[in-house]
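Worked Example 4.2. Consider the chain below.
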Amino acid sequence: MGTSPMGSAGGGIANAGKEKKGQAETGGPVLEEAQKCCGCRFPLLVALLQLLLGVAVAAVAFLMVTISSSLLARETPHWAGIIMIVVSLLGFILFCITRVPDERASAQFIVKLLYFFLCTMGLVISAVVIAFQCYHYALTNSYSCKEMGEYCMCTLDPEDPIARTFSYSGVTDCSAIVSTLPMYYLLQMVLNLAQAIVCLVGAFLIWKHRYQVFFAGLQTGSPSVQNWQKV
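Applying the procedure from the previous section yields the following C-alpha coordinates:
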Protein backbone atom coordinates (compact mmCIF):
# COMPACT_ATOMS: atom_id res chain seq x y z
CA MET A 1 0.00 0.00 0.00
CA GLY A 2 1.19 3.56 -0.74
CA THR A 3 1.85 6.24 1.78
CA SER A 4 -0.20 9.39 1.60
CA PRO A 5 1.55 12.75 1.24
CA MET A 6 -0.03 13.85 4.50
CA GLY A 7 1.51 10.89 6.29
CA SER A 8 4.94 11.62 4.82
CA ALA A 9 4.78 15.25 5.82
CA GLY A 10 3.62 14.36 9.30
CA GLY A 11 6.41 11.86 9.70
CA GLY A 12 8.97 14.42 8.52
CA ILE A 13 7.74 17.00 11.02
CA ALA A 14 7.84 14.43 13.81
CA ASN A 15 11.38 13.40 12.91
CA ALA A 16 12.48 17.03 12.75
CA GLY A 17 10.96 17.63 16.17
CA LYS A 18 12.78 14.62 17.59
CA GLU A 19 16.08 15.78 16.09
CA LYS A 20 15.67 19.28 17.55
CA LYS A 21 14.79 17.80 20.92
CA GLY A 22 17.82 15.54 20.78
CA GLN A 23 20.05 18.47 19.89
CA ALA A 24 18.69 20.49 22.79
CA GLU A 25 19.32 17.63 25.20
CA THR A 26 22.87 17.00 24.03
CA GLY A 27 23.89 20.64 23.78
CA GLY A 28 23.74 20.94 19.99
CA PRO A 29 22.87 23.89 17.75
CA VAL A 30 19.76 24.72 19.79
CA LEU A 31 21.92 25.41 22.86
CA GLU A 32 24.35 27.39 20.72
CA GLU A 33 21.51 29.63 19.52
CA ALA A 34 20.42 30.20 23.11
CA GLN A 35 23.91 31.38 23.96
CA LYS A 36 23.82 34.12 21.34
CA CYS A 37 22.71 37.70 21.88
CA CYS A 38 22.08 39.98 18.87
CA GLY A 39 23.93 37.51 16.66
CA CYS A 40 27.03 37.41 18.86
CA ARG A 41 27.83 34.69 21.31
CA PHE A 42 27.47 35.97 24.84
CA PRO A 43 29.37 37.67 26.39
CA LEU A 44 31.63 38.64 23.48
CA LEU A 45 29.78 41.85 22.60
CA VAL A 46 29.46 42.98 26.22
CA ALA A 47 33.11 42.18 26.99
CA LEU A 48 34.27 44.04 23.88
CA LEU A 49 32.30 47.15 24.86
CA GLN A 50 33.67 46.93 28.39
CA LEU A 51 37.21 46.74 27.06
CA LEU A 52 36.76 49.75 24.78
CA LEU A 53 35.08 51.84 27.47
CA GLY A 54 37.67 50.84 30.08
CA VAL A 55 40.52 51.89 27.80
CA ALA A 56 38.75 55.16 26.99
CA VAL A 57 38.12 56.00 30.67
CA ALA A 58 41.73 55.24 31.63
CA ALA A 59 43.11 57.21 28.67
CA VAL A 60 41.03 60.30 29.47
CA ALA A 61 42.04 60.05 33.13
CA PHE A 62 45.74 59.98 32.24
CA LEU A 63 45.22 62.99 29.97
CA MET A 64 43.70 64.81 32.93
CA VAL A 65 46.79 64.08 35.01
CA THR A 66 48.94 65.87 32.43
CA ILE A 67 47.06 69.11 33.14
CA SER A 68 48.13 69.20 36.78
CA SER A 69 49.77 66.77 39.15
CA SER A 70 47.64 68.17 41.98
CA LEU A 71 44.49 66.44 40.77
CA LEU A 72 43.19 63.83 43.19
CA ALA A 73 42.55 60.19 42.35
CA ARG A 74 38.81 60.75 42.52
CA GLU A 75 39.18 63.46 39.87
CA THR A 76 41.15 61.21 37.52
CA PRO A 77 39.35 57.85 37.67
CA HIS A 78 41.91 55.76 35.81
CA TRP A 79 41.26 53.06 38.41
CA ALA A 80 37.69 52.73 37.15
CA GLY A 81 38.95 52.11 33.63
CA ILE A 82 41.52 49.55 34.79
CA ILE A 83 38.88 47.66 36.76
CA MET A 84 36.63 47.61 33.69
CA ILE A 85 39.47 46.22 31.57
CA VAL A 86 39.85 43.39 34.09
CA VAL A 87 36.11 42.72 33.90
CA SER A 88 36.27 42.59 30.10
CA LEU A 89 39.18 40.14 30.18
CA LEU A 90 37.15 37.89 32.43
CA GLY A 91 34.31 38.16 29.93
CA PHE A 92 36.63 37.03 27.14
CA ILE A 93 37.70 34.08 29.29
CA LEU A 94 34.04 33.20 29.79
CA PHE A 95 33.54 33.38 26.04
CA CYS A 96 36.53 31.13 25.36
CA ILE A 97 35.46 28.44 27.82
CA THR A 98 33.92 25.69 25.75
CA ARG A 99 30.34 25.03 26.80
CA VAL A 100 30.52 21.27 26.75
CA PRO A 101 29.54 18.81 29.48
CA ASP A 102 32.88 17.92 30.96
CA GLU A 103 34.88 18.29 34.13
CA ARG A 104 35.22 22.05 33.60
CA ALA A 105 31.64 22.72 34.70
CA SER A 106 32.88 23.99 38.06
CA ALA A 107 35.29 26.37 36.32
CA GLN A 108 32.43 27.72 34.20
CA PHE A 109 30.36 28.29 37.31
CA ILE A 110 33.20 30.13 39.09
CA VAL A 111 33.95 32.34 36.07
CA LYS A 112 30.27 33.20 35.62
CA LEU A 113 29.94 34.04 39.30
CA LEU A 114 33.05 36.24 39.22
CA TYR A 115 31.88 37.95 36.05
CA PHE A 116 28.49 38.71 37.58
CA PHE A 117 30.11 40.05 40.75
CA LEU A 118 32.59 42.22 38.84
CA CYS A 119 29.87 43.57 36.54
CA THR A 120 27.87 44.56 39.61
CA MET A 121 30.94 46.14 41.18
CA GLY A 122 31.70 47.95 37.92
CA LEU A 123 28.17 49.35 37.91
CA VAL A 124 28.59 50.71 41.44
CA ILE A 125 32.05 52.13 40.70
CA SER A 126 30.79 53.86 37.56
CA ALA A 127 27.96 55.43 39.55
CA VAL A 128 30.47 56.69 42.15
CA VAL A 129 32.71 58.12 39.43
CA ILE A 130 29.75 59.91 37.83
CA ALA A 131 28.88 61.48 41.19
CA PHE A 132 32.45 62.71 41.73
CA GLN A 133 32.75 64.04 38.18
CA CYS A 134 29.44 65.91 38.48
CA TYR A 135 30.63 67.54 41.69
CA HIS A 136 33.99 68.62 40.27
CA TYR A 137 32.40 69.75 37.02
CA ALA A 138 30.07 72.09 38.91
CA LEU A 139 32.98 73.21 41.09
CA THR A 140 35.35 74.12 38.26
CA ASN A 141 32.62 76.01 36.44
CA SER A 142 32.42 78.33 39.46
CA TYR A 143 36.17 78.93 39.67
CA SER A 144 37.84 82.30 39.52
CA CYS A 145 41.52 81.62 38.87
CA LYS A 146 44.75 83.56 38.64
CA GLU A 147 48.28 82.49 37.88
CA MET A 148 50.96 82.63 40.55
CA GLY A 149 54.24 81.36 39.12
CA GLU A 150 53.89 77.65 38.39
CA TYR A 151 50.64 77.48 40.32
CA CYS A 152 47.09 78.29 39.41
CA MET A 153 45.15 79.57 42.41
CA CYS A 154 41.39 79.21 42.13
CA THR A 155 38.64 80.32 44.45
CA LEU A 156 34.87 80.24 44.38
CA ASP A 157 34.45 83.85 45.51
CA PRO A 158 37.39 86.19 44.83
CA GLU A 159 35.84 88.92 46.99
CA ASP A 160 35.66 86.68 50.06
CA PRO A 161 39.03 86.69 51.88
CA ILE A 162 38.26 83.47 53.74
CA ALA A 163 36.83 81.60 50.76
CA ARG A 164 38.21 78.15 50.07
CA THR A 165 41.19 78.21 47.72
CA PHE A 166 42.23 75.45 45.31
CA SER A 167 45.85 75.27 44.20
CA TYR A 168 46.95 73.46 41.03
CA SER A 169 50.67 72.95 40.53
CA GLY A 170 52.46 72.68 37.22
CA VAL A 171 49.89 74.83 35.42
CA THR A 172 51.21 77.67 33.28
CA ASP A 173 47.82 78.68 31.89
CA CYS A 174 44.73 78.75 34.09
CA SER A 175 42.50 78.31 31.06
CA ALA A 176 43.37 74.61 31.24
CA ILE A 177 41.64 74.50 34.63
CA VAL A 178 38.57 76.54 33.83
CA SER A 179 37.93 75.26 30.30
CA THR A 180 39.81 72.05 29.45
CA LEU A 181 39.35 70.29 32.79
CA PRO A 182 35.54 70.68 32.88
CA MET A 183 35.41 69.21 29.37
CA TYR A 184 37.27 66.14 30.63
CA TYR A 185 34.90 65.88 33.59
CA LEU A 186 31.94 65.93 31.23
CA LEU A 187 33.55 63.31 29.00
CA GLN A 188 34.18 61.08 32.01
CA MET A 189 30.53 61.36 33.00
CA VAL A 190 29.41 60.22 29.55
CA LEU A 191 31.92 57.35 29.38
CA ASN A 192 31.12 56.09 32.86
CA LEU A 193 27.40 56.30 32.18
CA ALA A 194 27.89 54.08 29.13
CA GLN A 195 30.14 51.84 31.21
CA ALA A 196 27.46 51.49 33.88
CA ILE A 197 24.82 50.59 31.28
CA VAL A 198 27.06 47.91 29.75
CA CYS A 199 27.80 46.45 33.19
CA LEU A 200 24.09 46.40 33.96
CA VAL A 201 23.39 44.56 30.71
CA GLY A 202 26.17 42.05 31.43
CA ALA A 203 24.93 41.35 34.94
CA PHE A 204 21.34 41.05 33.71
CA LEU A 205 22.24 38.57 30.98
CA ILE A 206 24.21 36.44 33.42
CA TRP A 207 21.27 36.55 35.82
CA LYS A 208 18.79 35.40 33.20
CA HIS A 209 17.72 31.81 33.46
CA ARG A 210 19.11 30.66 30.15
CA TYR A 211 22.58 31.83 31.14
CA GLN A 212 22.36 29.95 34.43
CA VAL A 213 22.65 26.56 32.71
CA PHE A 214 25.55 24.59 34.13
CA PHE A 215 26.46 21.02 33.40
CA ALA A 216 26.47 18.77 36.44
CA GLY A 217 28.60 16.16 34.73
CA LEU A 218 26.10 13.36 35.42
CA GLN A 219 26.03 10.66 32.79
CA THR A 220 22.75 8.87 32.18
CA GLY A 221 21.88 6.05 29.86
CA SER A 222 24.27 3.81 28.02
CA PRO A 223 28.01 4.46 28.44
CA SER A 224 28.41 4.34 24.65
CA VAL A 225 25.98 7.22 24.17
CA GLN A 226 26.88 10.09 26.48
CA ASN A 227 23.78 11.95 27.56
CA TRP A 228 24.50 14.60 30.14
CA GLN A 229 22.03 16.00 32.60
CA LYS A 230 21.91 19.78 32.96
CA VAL A 231 21.02 21.51 36.22
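The first strand starts at residue 36 and ends at 37. The chain has six helices and seven strands. Compare this with Example 4.1 before moving on.
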